[in-house]
Amino acid sequence: MTGINDLITYAHRMITDHLAFGTTGNLSVREEDVLWITPSGVPFEEVHRDNVVGVDIASGNVIEGHARPSSELPLHLTLYRRRPNIGAIVHTHSEYATIFAALGEPIVPIHYQMALSAYQVNCAEYATYGTEQLAHNALAALGPNDRAVLLKNHGLVAVGPKLSSAYQTALDVEWMARLLFRARCVGNPRVLTPEEVDHVREQFRHYGQNPQD
User: Fold this and answer.
1) 105 is a catalytic site residue
2) I need a surface site. Which of 29, 74, 99, 211 has the fewest CB within 10 A?
3) Is the pLDDT of residue 211 over 60?
4) Active-site entry in 31, 46, 64, 72
């Protein structure tokens, strides 16, 4: 049950890492044909093995747990069904990312670190939380290689092959949103071109202790 353990670990970090407040936001992780998701309306620090919910991805039926799954279950199901490369989802209401979501503006690349997430973080059209329409809008705005998308007047969705990478993307995007917000308070920051971001992405393949050939 590594997925459940990871879910609990990162749920407990959501408030201290300033990615959420109260009970807003949610996380899930895929394990084969099942997704494990945080429960609805439960404070993150109170998420534990007894209230994590297991849901069959194909049918959408709860197959393990007694708590109600997050109200954003349709969003998680849609992304897992349509994007088999996604292994985990982190949905946040972090302050600066949500500012751009409220503006309906993408987070554009003024720093090369954006290459880890996308060329830019697009903003999906608004829909009421917890609806199939919201899930459809998020999927439409999330490019095939993107790892994050804003939800207009709502928040951020970060995805990844595993929960640690999706969570790190949520942190990275919040940092970049804060950087962009503050830079615009001073002036008009230069935006990197798609070619420049692509070049950085190639450089990242050879970065660290386990470079990709």
Assistant:
1) no
2) 211
3) no
4) 72
